[in-house]
Predict the structure.
Amino acid sequence: MRLLLIAITGTLIFWPLPTQSQVQDLNNVHYDLTQSGNHYTIRGTFFVRSNPNCLLHIFYDFEHLSHIVTEADSLILLRKGEDWYDVAYIYHCLLLKGRVVYRKTLIQEKMKVSFEMTESDQRRSLLPKVVSSGGYYEIKPEKDGYRVIYWQEGMVADAWSTKIFFPQLEKETTKFLHGLKDYVERTCH
């Protein structure tokens, strides 16, 4: 489901997760999804043997964003500073339309790239409005390689939830993290 994919890439959350926590380990990709009321967190990790500077560029550079955020219909670079930029993610699906602006910030000394939602416009949506969303990609050295950590938290205006979306969200989270790991391994040698 196209709109559900939005929930796991640090962009736009249309549905809250059911009140529960799921920890999974599939092919060396670990993830944890939790939700309480209208607040959610997503944490995913995987190990790679890649150059850490290349990893930072993948998580930060606008040119790599379309390979990570594959469900957006378009990505528009709005403003750029020395170690930050604002990007608009545009989504269209049937009668639903969304535009979200995130600020991405490179924190080189901490081997981290943060993202924070600064604007959200969901038109014609019967789904809960996202009131906050942010997180980071972090690179931690380990023996013989690096641990990539993806973390996101957010809040929606409505606390309603449905059990129908959680299994799909779990599936899409797995797909996103595996896709991210595959892209990193293909791009950073």
Notes: The first strand starts at residue 20 and ends at 26. The two ends are 33 Å apart (CA to CA). The first helix runs from residue 2 to 5.
